[in-house]
Amino acid sequence: MSLVVSERQMLAVSSRELSPTRLSNLSEQIQRAVLSAGGASDDPLVNEVVHAAVTAFVEEGEARTAAARVAPLLDRLGRRQARRGADAAALFESFRAARIATQRGLSTVIGEAITGSVVIRLREELMSYLAFLFAHAREGLELERERIARAKAERPKVSAPTKGNGASPTLTTSQRRALARLRDGEQLVVLTAVTEPLPIALCHQPGVAADDERQTALAPAAWCAEQLCEWLDGQAVLGPAVTISDAAGAVALVRRAAAMLADGTIEDPRRLVPFQDLLGSMLLASNPILNELMIAKHFASWEQMPASRRVALAEFLQLWLERGQPTNQLARELGVPPQTAHSRMKAIRQLLGDALDDPTQRLELMVALRAVLPRWRS
């Protein structure tokens, strides 16, 4: 939306007269709204973007010009969100929160400094401004998502190098030196790239020891995930904090997880994936033959049931095994009558017998159900 010259000049002059304190309060309101929409408590880049955007609009007084001034920051924000696995819908929710916060806080900021038709024009121009800002951020997000997709398709997928018959990969000299410098009880974390090498700047940070291919690095355990995430250009897996004795084994496990993400065995859109979040998926994907053996052992007879009956019993059994709750409580959670829940449990006991009371076989049942239920549901 464009303004006639006189209105635009009036708006620019009026906006410059706004109270700096009130503008600062508005910025904080917008920051809180955006961070809350994204489920974060603090984010330096979001704070920088909001402050720069408010300042640019106050000084320019016109949406398109002010948006062009902060476009590089919005592009940076959009690209970062893409690396974190966000899509345009998630980005839109953040800007929707910003728009609501702006509308709610604007009257307090304006006070009596701006009146009449200029107030209406100011609100309209601000909404146009937010639309321009969103367009810049979305363009950055989509370009980065395209770059990530191209890189994943073009780069050779990394695999965990092994020695001998699958022993842990050998640590580099620099990594062994890093471990040698640790005091008793001191720990490091393992960081492994999925498709793209770790950034050179990260690998050269004090306390970081990376291999020559920049696939795996040992980093100080004191570094938080947010710090590491800011450095990354591509996806990586963050392993647990380990001591000297466990380092080589941790490297092998984290590299294996990265390889499974790279070849699509495990799917996770996040830029930095905690290894702990992949444990269940790795267990299920580690040996498909073993999974099929457990499915055949416990559920071969179930294949003769009608599909709906089979799924209903399997879902109830899974919930019973994982929750360890009384049948009546599970009935309430599933939204079925208590007599239905008891009937299902009776049928399950008839089918599985003593396996339900043996700890080892209960574990087999849980793993087998995790593997087979998606197949049965489809």
Molecular structure report:
The chain is an alpha+beta fold and 378 residues long. The chain has 3 domains: 2-153, Globin-like (Orthogonal Bundle); 173-285, no CATH class; 288-377, no CATH class. Helices cover 64% and strands 6% of the residues. It is built from 17 helices and 5 strands. Strands 2-3-1-4-5 form a 5-stranded mixed β-sheet, sandwiched between helices. InterPro entries: PucR_C-HTH_dom, PucR_C-HTH_sf, RsbRD_N_dom. Residues 30-155 form the RsbT co-antagonist protein RsbRD N-terminal domain. Residues 313-371 form the PucR C-terminal helix-turn-helix domain.
CATH fold annotation of the largest domain? Globin-like
* CATH first level of the largest domain: Mainly Alpha
Return the average pLDDT rounded to an integer: 78
- Uncertain regions: pLDDT < 50 for 5+ in a row? 1-16, 155-168
Shape descriptor: globular
Question: What summary fits the major beta sheet?
Answer: 5 strands, mixed
